[in-house]
Amino acid sequence: MNNKNDMDYYLLTSLGVRPQDGRYKLENRIESGNFSSSALVKLLEQKPKKVFVLLTSKAREKSLEEFQKEIGLETEIIDIPDGVNDEEIKTIIRKILMVIPEGSNLILDISQGFRHFPFLFFTSVLYLQSFRGVNIHKIYYGMYEKIPEYGFSPIIELGSILEMVEWYHSVKDFSEMKLSGNLAKMIDNKLNDRSLNRISKDFIEKITIQIKRFDDFYGTGLPMGIGDSSKSLINQFKNNETKLKNGSKEIIPLGGELFKFATKSLEDFKLVDSISTSGKWKEKFKLDYTELERQCRIIDSFFTTGHYVNAIRLMREWIISRCTLSSDITNGWLKRSKRAPVERLLGSIRWQAEKGILVDDKKELASIWDSISKYRNEIAHNGMNEERIDISRNLDRIEKIWKRMKELMHDDKYWDLKIGGEGGKLLITPFGFSKGLLYSAIKLINPDNCIIITSKEAASSIPEIMKKAGYIGNYELIDIIDPHTGYNEIKDIINTLIPNRAGIFLDADEIIINLTGGTTTLQVLVDVISHKCWEMGKDPNKVIILDKRDAQEQRDNPYVTGEIIYLEDIISCSKKDGEDD
């Protein structure tokens, strides 16, 4: 890319119909001329390669000949109408855009011509600068006013007005649409100003870092990072407006006002002032309604700015957080070990809804979770599936769901995922012909309800075992025809058992799965049932029943209580101290 100082310079001006001799002053030098632009050319250190002159028919007749004699440079005439209507105005702008070389340095003299011409110049240079790579080097206006005590007309440089417009648009883009690229770039460019004092330079560098940091978090949809970076940027600017000045000179035109506007737009996102974000601050960060409401505002912003992917992803996480709060979990709520069980419970109510066994007051939540999960999955896989995705229709539905979620935000009962319970312990166990294993399981666990997976041949001894164990709870038998190779029976048993016995599983306060006893087929069926319990939002405890006596003694005297080992105890022994579960 070429340095803008290496590009050719051009002057764009217009002429009126009454040339007037005048003396013009730019900085400390004075030159005479019948046209402000001819005096300006003499005053410029960097002479333009060519002068583009806008001329109406009357200006051509009255001024052109004299101007060409006086200017002393190559000129290109652009014949234009008077600009008295919309079509003529557009014609003038089109002609300007056609002649100015792409990637050049342009100097503007807006002193002469009709009074509305400066507006046309202004509109044109915005386009040239944005889309043609033209660098607007300077904008001059020669005030044809003979100041009595000085006897000259000052030439004013108005480039700061164009710069103010650029700053305005970059701050507006940042404030309204959270587009920070142009703002960060403009601030970065200020660092090239060698006249900056050390304090101002350090301040601008810090602001640039914080803006880029916010952009990273906002673009990737990370609400905690958005909150932290918003707070940091607001605090960075607060009470530091004087650092935007290099002495009495403003580094950024109206910088104080612009940054007030920019940081005000982040107030809705910032973390509360009482939260320190140093070190491992997220570990100590408590969940409450204030935080949920803050995330609501971030999601609203994602919809406004078109970050729909971020909106949907955060909506899903927001539901998990809201249900977590209803479970009275406020500490450590960002840990996976706290969020995963809640996510699984939400999956459970969706599963129950599909099976037609969900209680009425949780059906809407199940529907919301199902919809958000589906939309999120479509996005997560970038539409890489066979289904046709209707973005507009989906977004309309999602926004309606989001509106409903916000309406229900403070309804704690609505987000409470606890379903069933008060059914006591449920034991699920296989049973072959080892009476002692079932006897020990009943004695050691003492369940309120029991589901025994067995065969017709083995089932006949179960009443005796229950009597010997003194069991007075409820139990039912699930028979498998072929306990040795009847794996093909498992699917039909599950399809009948789960919908018909869902209440037993859901009402259980605790589910214990015995992994010992019976044939391999029976144990596989028990394991499948355990997985279905997990899908229903339950977290079964798996156990092993041991009898260390020899086999013959177990057969001769089965009714001796053995030992119980919880599988979780075996697993936890392999974990390092402090490892998250």
What does the model show?
There is one protein chain. With 581 residues, the chain is α/β, with parallel strands linked by helices. The protein folds into four domains: 4-157, 3-Layer(aba) Sandwich (Rossmann fold), CATH 3.40.50; 169-273; 286-407; 425-572, Rossmann fold. It contains 22 helices and 16 strands. The strands form three sheets. An eight-stranded mixed β-sheet has the order 3-2-8-7-6-1-4-5, sandwiched between helices. A six-stranded mixed β-sheet has the order 13-12-11-14-15-16, sandwiched between helices. The chain has a two-stranded antiparallel ribbon with strand order 9-10. The longest helix has 23 residues, at 198-220. The protein starts with 8 loop residues before the first strand and ends in a 9-residue tail after the last helix.
Please give the alpha-carbon distance between the first and last residues.
54 Å
CATH C-level category of the largest domain? Alpha Beta
CATH architecture of the largest domain: 3-Layer(aba) Sandwich
The whole-angstrom Rg is: 39 Å
CATH homology superfamily name of the largest domain:
SSO1389-like
The proportion of residues in beta strands is: 5-15%
User: pLDDT average, as an integer?
Assistant: 88
CATH topology name of the largest domain? Rossmann fold
Oligomer: single chain
Structural class: alpha/beta
Numbering strands along the chain, what is their spatial order in the largest sheet? 3-2-8-7-6-1-4-5
Short description:
The protein is an alpha/beta fold.
What's the arrangement of secondary structure elements?
Layout: E1 9-14, E2 22-26, E3 29-33, H1 36-43, E4 50-55, H2 57-71, E5 75-79, H3 86-99, E6 105-109, H4 117-131, E7 135-142, E8 153-157, H5 159-177, H6 181-190, H7 198-220, H8 223-237, E9 245-246, E10 249-250, H9 255-264, H10 281-284, H11 289-305, H12 308-326, H13 336-355, H14 363-380, H15 391-407, E11 425-430, H16 435-445, E12 449-454, H17 456-459, H18 462-469, E13 474-479, H19 490-507, E14 510-514, H20 520-535, E15 541-546, H21 551-556, E16 563-566, H22 567-572
Parallel strand pairs: 1-4, 1-6, 2-8, 4-5, 6-7, 11-12, 11-14, 12-13, 14-15
Antiparallel strand pairs: 2-3, 7-8, 9-10, 15-16
